[in-house]
Design goal:
The chain is mainly beta. The chain has one helix at 124-149, and strands at residues 5-9, 13-15, 21-30, 36-44, 53-55, 60-63, 68-76, 84-94, 102-103, 107-112, 160-162, 165-167. It has one helix and twelve strands. The strands form three sheets. Strands 2, 4, 6, 8, 9 and 10 form a six-stranded mixed beta sheet that branches. The N and C termini lie far apart (172 Å). The mean pLDDT is 79.
């Protein structure tokens, strides 16, 4: 019995990249003598898995009378699968008569490369070293600057009192205003203080008086 469909491909080998993904193009021709809606089916052979192969645009296609179309098969293999060659196949079946109208596609060999090495871990110890250096440097700067602040302040020079305003001494001439105006004229003299001298003789009536 002749096949209801013809499935061909330009290459029977599917080469995957380092992420274990690849594509392959298939051509499906309708030889049923009628328009038909078909379903694409991934068939795993050997150690392969059918879920590794999906079809761009979904599993269903509409074929006109004697028509053909191209389908892109997308292959994705998990990273935990061992490297090697895994065979698969893409079959086609009619949606209305799957038991009568169907076709087996060509066998495709998926070349699974070695899994990519895990990404290098970031060297966190570098951050620890940088942080320690920053903390140590900050502590040294703090100690040095704090040490200068601990020095005792120099004592203030004695102030000079002029009138009612106290002015510290200065190396430059400074005019210091006073709150009281300075008057010119004769300088007043102080009144003489009266000094009382003890008597040179004691009266006879005072027994406590002693002569000098």
């Amino acid at each position: 019995m002749p096949s209801a469909f013809v499935v061909t491909t330009a290459s029977n080998t599917v080469t995957l990249d380092v992420a274990r993904k690849g594509t392959v193009s298939l051509t499906i021709s309708n030889t049923t003598g009628r328009p038909v809606r078909v379903r694409l089916k991934s068939v795993a052979l050997g150690q392969a898995k059918p879920e590794w192969v999906t079809f761009d645009g979904g599993d269903f296609r509409d074929l006109s009378l004697g028509g053909s179309l191209q389908v892109t098969a997308i292959v994705a293999v998990p990273l935990d699968v061992a490297p090697g060659a895994y065979p698969v196949r893409a079959d086609v079946v009619a949606e209305d008569q799957p038991m009568e109208d169907f076709a087996q596609g060509p066998e495709l060999t998926i070349q699974v490369p070695a899994a990519p090495p895990p990404p290098e871990r970031f060297p966190w110890w570098i951050l620890a070293v940088v942080l320690a250096v920053l903390v140590l440097g900050g502590g040294i700067v703090f100690v040095l600057t704090r040490g200068g602040d601990d020095q005792p302040d120099a004592p203030l020079p004695p102030s000079v009192t002029t009138g009612t305003t106290a002015v510290p001494p200065s190396t430059t001439a400074t005019t210091v205003p006073t709150t009281r105006p300075v008057t010119t004229g004769p300088v007043p003299t102080t009144r003489p203080r009266t000094t009382f001298l003890p008597p040179t003789t004691c009266p006879r009536s005072n027994p406590f008086c002693l002569p000098p």
